[in-house]
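Notes, Module 5: Reading structure tokens.

Key idea: the token line is not a picture. It is a compressed description, and you learn to read it the same way you learned to read a sequence, by spotting repeated patterns. We will look at two proteins. The first is printed below with its tokens.
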Amino acid sequence: EPPRAHKRRAEIHSANRMAASRILFGLLIAGHAQARGKYALPARTRTFLASYRPNGRCQTRRIVRRFATEGTETLPSAIEAQKAGFEDAIGIGKQVASQLQNSNAPEVRGVLDALLGNEAGARGFFVSFLTSDGDDTIADQNPPVELLGDALAQAEEKVVGPLLVMNTVMPTAMVTAHKRSNSDSMAEMSMRVARRASILLEHSPRTRPIVEAAFGAAERAVEENPSPEGGPDEVAYWLRFYNKWGYDEEMRKEIAAALNDVLIKCA
């Protein structure tokens, strides 16, 4: 095989793995929400999560085929977006994200409001928006573009708040994990997702009580035997969360620090 063709093949394979990693990251956060009993994942998504192997090429090809070309069709109606399941909302979210920069059209805002109005839709939108490639995209703008900022300001905080918190803390912990395994590209991707999610939290004033509660409990749960004062149920949840995902003391402190940083910036 000519060297140029071999190099191109390697580049395509690397791009596919990164695309699959971004999608898997969103699915893992969805799986976390399912574990809390807040959202029922589609059967095919549960099957993927149960069978996923990081080095399994067949899973990589399948998940890339499923999502790589979505988001290129005509923007659906707000009613269609409202009814979309998590997997379909990823494609719709990609379409909306591509139009946020140069559009104030009512139909774009209507579809965005519909996505942010329920957990499946909001999760799908955030997967597309927060994991897009590059460091100078619409997702990196601070403050967010007006259309998105206005939509977040009016979105139900009990829907978007917990999702943005998890999209901040989980990749924050994974930055350390990837650095320890010398996976700089994955660490960079996780850092990008955490940074983007924190920007949205900073500019979503209605979610502040949720962030405050999460920070207080997450900080107390850094120790193995947290004090029961100040909401023992929430502290116990964070302790279970840390243990489930294998987050050690360093990662736990970084999670608490990330939430505290959001509170400082939106004060």
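Here is the second protein, with the sequence above and the tokens below, as before.
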Amino acid sequence: FTLVGAQGFRSFFSDIIADAQKHNIAEAKADAPPDVPLARILGSLVGESIRTYRQELEYIKADKFKMPYDMEPRHRQFDPRFIFQSMAGGANEQESIIERRAEYRATDGKMDTKHWIASNLYPEYYKYTFHFQTDGWMSSDSAETYEYSTETIFGGRQDAMQRTSLVPFSAFWETHKARNPKVLELAAGTGRFATFLRDSYPEVDLTLLELSPYYIEKARQNLNYWERFRRGARDDAKPKPKKTRFMQAAAEDIPVDDASLDCIVTNYLFHELPPEARRAVFKEVKRVLKPGGTFILTDSVQIGDRDARLNPILEMFEKFDEPWYPSYLRENFGKIATEEVGGFAAGEKYLNSYTKTLTFTRL
């Protein structure tokens, strides 16, 4: 993953430098070479990966969550056939992304990047092909290649960064497990994170909410695979895992009753929402959480979270069909939760590589 990710990130980072030169972004030098050496990128990704996995190992040692189940040799990702299929699909997708990115730059950002289907069933902001991925969120091909694409870009760290959500979840679980708490993952995507949550906390009453019918079907497949994977190693003395439920809906319109959920988790949703939608989601989370309920928000780091040298790179993500990423970088989620929407108390903040996790308690 790290080597393939370095190749993809090389193209990505070279585009960032070229755009930074064109728009005179702070800290970009006019004579900076647009072709970043692969060895330099590879070294950076390896170093970042080592730090990420060291941090995750500390969480595992502290019993925040289990060793990832996909590290067991019988997992399908050790099967050469699965590896080849994933690499082939991922390589084709990366090539398509690079071509669309080149077309976008050639038209100076005037290219229509909305997905192929016209529909009034989805919010306007949802119709973009985020990251220039094939069909946006609206095809089975997109859902099939999403996991591989994101893992290669981040050098194999994507799952580890998402699992940071399990750190505050472990604290929630310890204080609420006796009450049979109801947990919702908001914008669950392909359900990859949900399999790790379910593996560490198999008795959790879990529902996955996702707007794309293609991604929610992929999530169902992933959860079914996890169930089959664990079935042979199940301890009969322990409670059987509960069935995962699925909902197709927007995050601003969760189809459950008021004050009916104990915990909501979301990963990488908010940077793809316009500002008004972010506030609408907070209002809806406030509506459906019980008093004392927990909201765990995991997403990209923002300006000020890490070394300032990372800021110019973060600023340029807008060029990868992320139209609301610039406003996300400076969004004050603590203020939204405690003042604008209100009804929440801000909790802990966790950093893991390019990801941050925030927690809020419903008052």
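Summary for the second protein:
- Residues 1-11, 19-34 have pLDDT under 50 and may be disordered.
- The CA atoms of residues 129 and 292 lie 37 Å apart.
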